[in-house]
Design goal:
The protein has 261 residues and is an all-alpha fold. It is built from ten helices and no strands. Helix 5 runs antiparallel to helix 6, helix 6 crosses helix 8 and helix 8 packs antiparallel against helix 9. The two termini are 39 Å apart.
Amino acid sequence: MLTTNPFAELSASISPAVMQAYVVIMIILVAGGTLFDVWHKKSARYFFDNWRKARSKGTEQVGGGEMASLAIQTAVVDVATSAEFCNPHRRIAHLLTMYGFLIYVITTAIMVFGYPTPAAPTPAILPLLWVLGALMVCGGGYWFWFVIRVDVAAEGHPPYRLVRADLFILSLLGSVTFGLIWAFLQAVDGPLTTLFLGLYLIATTILFGSIPWSKFSHMFFKPAAALQKRVASADGSRSNLPAPADKPANLGDPRRQPSHY
């Protein structure tokens, strides 16, 4: 399982062209769903209107060099290291899920398009990275779902309560979990391989096809919002918020720091 390309093995029963077409359809669903989400919720219009209003109230001029510096800071601090999470447990879970998902998706595309059949030997590192990425998603995702969720831990809701906002994390966990089980069963020629392949495809289709109703597209919006926040601080507008106090108040009981937010 750690050294075998599961998609190349699958080519014995499903044409590589079909697998490649499926991946292309998923890419189209991501692009189309994100654009529809932007149009339907008018988030892009709100974002640019809000940015324009904030710039008109700024007291400092942000030049091109400073803007580039702010963009780099956003990419390194807010995106690459998820510094907006004050809770270290939530930050680690988010980073595990984010980087695991990137590894999982990239290696899937490489194996499906670059090494679709056993005739083209797959470098052993790719299946290993595919499994590692999926395990990272499982580690971060299940940690978030069973331990960190704010509405369960802090607001007393039952752990089995499901809302629409849970669609993304549940479909993501379903995709990687069923994918790992399918790859393992295929490697050992075990029973129920076809069943878990079907569950893997269903969960993956829901993951990439439900963007207008899930939180998938927030991964594209959050970097833009983080950049706007840095620009608003640099030009003095601060999104119409007051300047930070020298000694900000400590909310909550000072003897026990908040642990969920």
